[in-house]
Amino acid sequence: MPERPVRSRQLALVVLCLASLMVVLDGTIVVVALPSIQADLGFTPANLAWIVNAYLVPFGGLLLFSGRLGDLIGRRRVFLIGLSVFTVASLLCGMAGDQGMLIAFRCLQGIGGALTTSVVLGMIVTLFPGQPEQGKALGLFGFVQAGGASLGMILGGVLTQGLGWHWTMLVNVPIGIVVVLATFAIIERDSGAGLRAGVDVLGAVLVTAGAMLLVYVIVDTGAPVRRWSLLALAVLLLAGFVLRQQKAPIPLLPLGLFRSRPVTGGNIVMILMVAGMMGFQFLTALYLQQVLELDALTTGFAFLPTPVTNAVVALWLGPRLIGRLGTRPVLAGGLLVAAAGLALLTRVPADGDYFTDVLPPLLLAGIGMGAAVPAVIGTAMSAGSPEDSGVASGLVNTTLQIGSAVGTAVLAAVAASRTSSLGETVMGQREAAASGFRFAYLGSTAFVVLAVLAALVLIPAKKEFPSHA
């Protein structure tokens, strides 16, 4: 791709990050609105989770295939298709009048979100092939990913209490229309390798079915026998996918990518990091509401320090540190700072105070993730040819989703189990809940500490990411 003017590339980056922000926000903005949706549409507690799961299952399952599709038919085309589907689905979700319609349209949203998100990283590393511009661009993308979840909780509280839960869906519509129009005007068309280059249909079916089933098992709360059976089936499908990629003439996921230490190490670090940090956000939202008894709007604003500090580090300090010290020290150092914040949360009391017990960990989490997220994304995207950047982008986003689902499911189960066991004693319910959160925060800290160790062992000690040609 010929070099484009700096301003043109910066405008394209803003468009891509705005689309990513819209998809990231949707992952948490709805969480705050769940009680209102339950009251309005009559969801049972068991069925309520499907408002989230109906989005996550197709989203997580389609990312890898969508990334390769972008390599074949053009990343801008896949981006526009996904964005259009996501925007229309958001409108339909906002107009849904019963449970079945809402769940069906949330599934459609997940499909659109996967198509949109899967190609964004590939487009960014193609627009900014060298340092330090790529580091700064990934810093902005990293802020969108790490800070967007917190911003979603704030916006969800404002919209739910001010306008109603429908607007947590409808807010995507005007933003989506603007981004679609801006994409036509600003982002240049890329042709891709073409479908004649070959589509591994069997591989696509195996990985999509396997990944969807894996995400479903992670978020499902059904009978253990059923979950273990489905997990075994998911493993068989994914194992079949790996075998297929070894024999396919044009594989969907070139296994040679995993010979690169940055790619393999970056994805392993990412799944551990995201498991700890997304689980932490979920736990903290519950602690603030169930133990400190804050309302939804106040809980949303309580997270504000995290995206603010994240922005300062990710957009300004992080790229400078990476350029001076290298990727591995910044990644490991950022994760250590985040782990320190999580460790502080293992002491939160039942009669805690936000400013003394919660705010300092939130600040440390924002600083640490602001440094770590751009570094680990850049590492995971640093190897392979530009022609494979779409599938590499899909792989990174699949890792993000699996890590998020695993962390949230595991830590929520740990907190619930601990609370339930203590609730049967003379300990009060509030103290039992606080103890459950403290125990789960230990798990969150452990995930991030493991990510630090993985970064030190698996990430090469290089001054900067390898650049795409």
UniProtKB/TrEMBL annotation:
UniProt-listed InterPro entries: MFS, MFS_dom, MFS_trans_sf
Molecular functions per Gene Ontology: transmembrane transporter activity
Keyword Hydrolase: no
Domain Major facilitator superfamily (MFS) profile: residue ranges: 12-463
Keyword Signal carried by entry: no
Transmembrane segments: 12-36, 48-66, 78-97, 103-128, 140-159, 165-187, 199-219, 225-243, 264-288, 300-318, 330-350, 362-383, 395-416, 436-459
Annotated Pfam families: MFS_1
Main subcellular localisation: membrane
Membrane topology: Multi-pass membrane protein
Sections of the chain in a coiled coil: none
Alphabetized UniProt keyword annotations: Cell membrane, Membrane, Transmembrane, Transmembrane helix, Transport
Subcellular location: Cell membrane
GO cellular component: plasma membrane
PANTHER family hit by this protein: BLR6921 PROTEIN (PTHR42718:SF46), MAJOR FACILITATOR SUPERFAMILY MULTIDRUG TRANSPORTER MFSC (PTHR42718)
Protein name per Swiss-Prot or TrEMBL: MFS transporter
